[in-house]
Amino acid sequence: MKTRLLIILCFGILSTSAQTIWDGPNITFTKTNFADWTQQANQDRITSNVWITRKNTQGIFNINQEAGYVTTSPEDTEWAYGTTSNIGALTFKTWVETHGNNPPSMIGQDMVVHLISEDIYIDIKFLSWTSAAGGGGFSYERSTDSGLSTEEFSISKFSIFPNPSHSEINLQLPTSVTNASVKVFNILGKVVYSSSIYEVPINIANWNNGIYLVQVSDLENTKTKRFIKL
User: Fold this and answer.
1) End-to-end C-alpha distance for the chain, whole angstroms
2) What is the pTM of this model?
3) Of 153, 154, 116, 124, which Cα lies nearest the Cα of 140?
4) What does the pLDDT look like over 99-119, one tens digit per residue?
């Protein structure tokens, strides 16, 4: 009996220690009206499991785990009004149960979202919400992982995939990066593509085979990486 009790206590301690509260600097995520929700730029990829977005109507959902919004969306999350500083007193429910099927009522309210599988708690506050069939726009600010350096939120973390590629490339950046631009140079230094970072994927099917340089810039930094066209 004593052995069994000890095992239960140890399991409880381990379960509690797995809980993580993100208390790093806030970032703001915005999905504008009628933006393509299938594009990475319009998804808040909080972790590898939870990517929050919204179609042109209805509520938010986790596009990494579900095709669209249902009444239990976003999948793998639960929500509560309040802050992580008072987490023990919060009652978590589905997103729609929390706001009572009235998303605009969330605006300006302190909330906490719990990423269930990863046991991560995040402070979040909705800043805007487009109702009815207005285009599915919304925005919020949320806390981040305090274990990440500032560089994790900068353009230095952008990646190119697939690489090498025959037909198209995609650029993936931290969701905190905004107002970025992209240029692609061939091996001779000539600009062969120039556009906003959010106009991806980039069609390279008709480009000559070889090495290209992708340059991403925001107001403070510029980062260049290469890819190979096959």
Assistant:
1) 66
2) 0.64
3) 124
4) 999 999 999 999 999 999 999
| pLDDT tens-place string over residues 3-23 | 444 444 444 444 444 589 999
What is the C-alpha to C-alpha distance for residues 21 and 206, in angstroms, rounded to an integer? 48
Q: Which two tokens stand for residue 96?
A: 């729609």
Nearest to 47 by CA among 149, 106, 119: 119
159/173 Cα distance (integer angstroms): 7
Residue type at 42 in one-letter notation: N
Closest CA to 114 of 100, 93, 97: 93
* Structural domains of the chain, with CATH: 18-147 (no CATH), 151-229 (2.60.40.3080)
Q: Which residues on neighbouring strands pair with residue 166, listed in sequence order?
A: none
User: How many whole angstroms separate alpha carbon 91 and alpha carbon 98?
Assistant: 9
